[in-house]
Fold this protein.
Amino acid sequence: MKRKIIEFKDFNFQYRVQAEPTLKNINLTIYEGEKVLIVGPSGSGKSTLAHCLNGLVPFYYDGKMTGQLKINNEDIETKNIFELSKIVGTVLQDPDSQFIGLTVGEDIAFKLENYCVDQDEMIEKVEKSAKLVDIDKEINESPYKLSGGQKQRVTLAGVTVDEVKVLLFDEPLASLDPATGKSAIELIDSIQKKWRKDNCYNRA
Ligand SMILES: Nc1ncnc2c1ncn2[C@@H]1O[C@H](COP(=O)(O)OP(=O)(O)O)[C@@H](O)[C@H]1O
Ligand SMILES: [Mg+2]
């Protein structure tokens, strides 16, 4: 049976500084292995919805949630932003704002360093993650020197390095030229297919 990974039920969110809720009566269920595109005009609340999933709302952007939001079958209110980052991996629109390491490898390893993973395991995981997104040849480069598409791959390797359950992209094509955008779509597709192969078939 398909497993629910995200479930909004009669969900509303209002920023503290706003007079009206930005998200109104959201009912949306997303199942494991699905790839879902959320479309709407600028200002319609796409990023706000994403921030409710990764914890930026309410931990960074204050406001009031009502209704229910479950991720991986657990109520979002029981999770802090650190716990959520282990479940939801976010790739922001502007990759430069997300880099922390001086090299691609360091950047990918950052999350694991926070979890005190031992060094051999860390190297293995970083290499695997870099290979998955085809950025392994640039592992010793500075992330800032890379092209827009390569930067996005580094960010993606950084969030997938510890096997998150949800990959969240906020306008992933916005800063890319059309050809790089096409390869970003193909990359997202291939990660999803690989995930389904690794997870769904052996559970059936
Ligand atoms: N940090 C914030 N503080 C207060 N209001 C915000 C904030 N971010 C977004 N909003 C409000 O939420 C609405 C939706 O914004 P957003 O989620 O960024 O939409 P989208 O990503 O679809 O362009 C905006 O019109 C604005 O009124
Ligand atoms: Mg947005």
User: Anything to note?
Assistant: The mean pLDDT is 91. DSSP finds seven helices and six strands in the chain. The two ends are 9 Å apart (CA to CA). Helices lie at 46-54, 56-59, 81-87, 104-114, 119-132, 148-160, 178-199.
